[in-house]
Amino acid sequence: MKITTWNVNGYRAIIKKDFLKSIAELSPDILCLQEIKAKEEQLAEGDIDIPGYKHIWNSAIRPGYSGVATYILNSDILTSSKTGFGVDEFDREGRVIQTSYKNILLYNIYFPNGQRGYDRVEYKLRFYEKLLDVCKEERNQGKKIIITGDFNTAHTEIDLTNPKENEKNSGFLPEERIWVSKFIDNGFIDAFRSLYPEKVQYTWWTYRFNARKRGIGWRLDYYLVSKELINSVKDVVIHDHIEGSDHCPVTLEII
Q1: Do 147 and 188 contact (CB within 8 A), yes or no?
Q2: pTM of full prediction above 0.90
Q3: Alpha-carbon gap, residue 213 to 160, rounded angstroms
Q4: Residues 106, 72: Cα–Cα separation, whole Å
Q5: Does residue 197 carry a pLDDT above 90?
Q6: 6 exposed, middle or buried (CB, 10 Å; 0-12, 13-18, 19+)?
Q7: Marked catalytic residue, from 88, 150, 159, 235
Q8: Which of these, 75, 142, 139, 83, lies nearest to 109 by C-alpha position?
């Protein structure tokens, strides 16, 4: 099974590019999109559809902001789905879709960005804490979990081009990185880094300074898998040749 995650930085914008062509090239069984920045009613008829896929959208209340969407190629494998945590401060921003496939729970998440001030960093840390609490409870019930999406945090120095210059910037603050470590300490594994411990490859580039062409980027898009699943991970591929957003898609293949 192939799962692809992609922060599209605006669904209405990316569908005007080579989006459908890129999805056809990647051919995922499950597609997780973040930062869709739209409500279903804002789309022209048919624009929400990706041929062959069932879709679940979770949009933010605020127009043109945040939001996630999950597309499933074979809906017969889907056993349940829900949106949000049941906590208004998070759910109003449309950040979470949970889908279940037999004994696997998949979380498609757009994690908060802390760039707008420290109050948003604190919000981001509360979000991490809530997710970890939810995942602990699910794992205690025997569930195997995959968390994917835009984490908005680079975990270690290998995950961004200029770590020293960014130590005081949100996305690489010690308190943010500690939360990623907490997930790992609680039985989750960074699937890409497990397979490629020394590989330098990024998933996000600022639009400024010609950063993408210059190779100046961050790895912000992850697959954290519960350790019970790690032997099922065949590969994680960062598709940094695919454009259309400031992020590129990332695919997890499990057997």
Answers
A1: yes
A2: yes
A3: 15
A4: 12
A5: yes
A6: buried
A7: 150
A8: 83
Quick check: 36 pLDDT over 90? yes
How confident is the model over 112-143, as pLDDT tens digits? 998 777 899 999 999 999 999 999 999 999 99
Is the pLDDT assigned to residue 226 strictly greater than 80? yes
Q: Tell me if residue 185 is catalytic.
A: no
CB of 1 closer than 8 Å to CB of 30: yes
d(CA 217, CA 160): 6
Residue type, 185: D
The average pLDDT across 209-221 equals: 98
Would you tell me how many other CB atoms lie within 10 Å of the CB of residue 252? 26
Binning the chain into helix, strand and coil, the percentages to the nearest 5 are 30, 25, 40
Domains of the chain listed by start with CATH number = 2-254 (3.60.10.10)
157: pLDDT strictly greater than 90: yes
Nearest to 176 by CA among 112, 219, 238: 112
Q: Return the amino acid letter for 240.
A: D
- One-letter-per-residue 3-state SS of 87-140: CHHHHCCCCEEEEEECCEEEEEEECCCCCCCHHHHHHHHHHHHHHHHHHHHHHH
CA distances from 130 to 85, 96, 111 (A): 8, 12, 12
Sequence-ordered list of residues with C-beta below 8 angstroms from that of 23, at least 6 positions apart, any chain: 4, 31, 50
Q: Do the strands 221-226 and 144-150 form a parallel or antiparallel pair, or are they unpaired?
A: antiparallel
Answer yes or no: are the C-beta atoms of 250 and 33 closer than 8 Å.
Answer: no
- 246 neighbors 9 (Cβ within 8 angstroms): yes
Average pLDDT on 164-170 reads 96
